[in-house]
Amino acid sequence: MIRSLSLKNLSVRRGGRLLFEGLALELAAGEACALTGPNGAGKTSLLRAVAGLVSLEAGEVAFDGVDAETARGAGLHLVGHQDGLKPARTAWEELRFWSLWCDGSEGSAQVAAETLELTPLLALEVRRLSAGQRRRLALARLLAAPRPLWLLDEPLSPLDARFRARFGELMADHLRRGGLILAAVHDPLPIPARALEIAP
Amino acid sequence: MSRLLTLLGRETALAWGRGGGPLVTVGFYAGVATLLPLAIGPERERLAAVATGAAWVALALASLLSLDRLFERDYEDGALDLLTLSPLPLELACAVKCLGQWIATGAPLALAAPVAAIALGAKPGLAPLILACALAGGLAFAFVGGIGAGLSLGARRGGLLTAVIVLPLFVPPVIFGGGALDAFASGLSWQAGFALLAAYAAAAVALGPLAMAAACRNALS
Asked: Which of A94, A123, B29, B94 sits a CA distance of 20 to 30 A from A141?
């Protein structure tokens, strides 16, 4: 279980450009942090750096309670703009696969689908889903295979008002159970969250 | 283990549809095999002399067809990120992806290879060895090809780059398999050529995923 996330003096360079440097953050269990900043400031790169998908120019990402390899292998979810869903597969095939891949089960995938009102859509190919439905399918992975740290990149942007509120409740539940959320956003999160602005 | 089987099922299904799947690959293979008599001439003796070698080279080329998409779609749509964020090593995921590629395109090609060779004039008695060589060679092509597909991730015209990277690595299995088939057709011992082909395939299966995973991590970062 990840008890806290600690970013120390973090610098990330992408494509020869230094996106940010000296960035620090301490996030404890039950806390959320909203990453804000203009387009291209490095919010997505920061999330990917925490997930270990982007190499650091300097600094350290530390997870209290587990080592970094375990945390990245079984302790965090990343939901980004690219959702990993295959257009030619059905929503159920994709949700079931990602649930099993992330240590969930078929049962937990079904519950997650019901929670996000995806059940009537499960037989459809992913290509037939709207942007909002597709985002709900990607978010269902968070519920199907619970992991403590959620790294979310613009999680609410394609959702309508009702599902923004619904996902806000799910984020609040996650925090109550001791989870952590780090989310890159342009609009405010519907839950109490600290803010960290990334300025170029 | 169940997680890997789930991934294998998914990858096989995706490879079945990738780039047209086995129908396009086998169709390409049949097309190349059909063109050869037009270029070489219809004389049975001349065709029979090159039948096994031609069928073998055509199989290597057909194996290239869908390789460039092996990792590229996962890279573009974020699935590669998610496969990386797992307790299982990325190397295993890469190996399973190549196995899915082999099941979806390598195995159908292996079934088509004896038919193509016999149609070109090879002796029917060669069919079992052609099938065995095509199965082992196809495994080598899939896993060696995966290295090229990983190294060309993110590159413009990645398919061309994959072919340029991979074709030199296809040379040993083409030589070993072609040698075994030639030896069998001439009544000589074919076992050494087949053993070398199988050894190359085993080395590709063992070492290929290490290179693929390193290439994928490099592309992601």
From this structure: B94
